[in-house]
Amino acid sequence: xxxxxxxxxxxxxTFGSRLAGMFLTKPLPxxxxxxxxxxxxxxxxxxxxxxxxxxxGEGLPRLLAxxxxxxxxxxxxxxxxxxxxxxxxxxxxxxxx
Length: 97
Known about the structure:
By secondary structure, this protein is mostly helical. The chain is built from five helices and no strands. Helix 4 packs antiparallel against helix 5.
């Protein structure tokens, strides 16, 4: 029963926030505009961080590639560049270690 209550709560929050955004007639205040800009990168980070440890002893190459990926994404302001180079770096570092 607890599982279904959790799922129902997530459903209400997810679709409630989407519906509120669709029916919003006034522009958002500046605070919320700044806040919403960081939601995609926060979600992406929350999805990636648990897998950095690795399952086959490849924690160090994953961590180094993630740091390099984050640095490149920050400097270029292009997430796809960071991801592409980060994956290449991971494959190279995995072969070196």
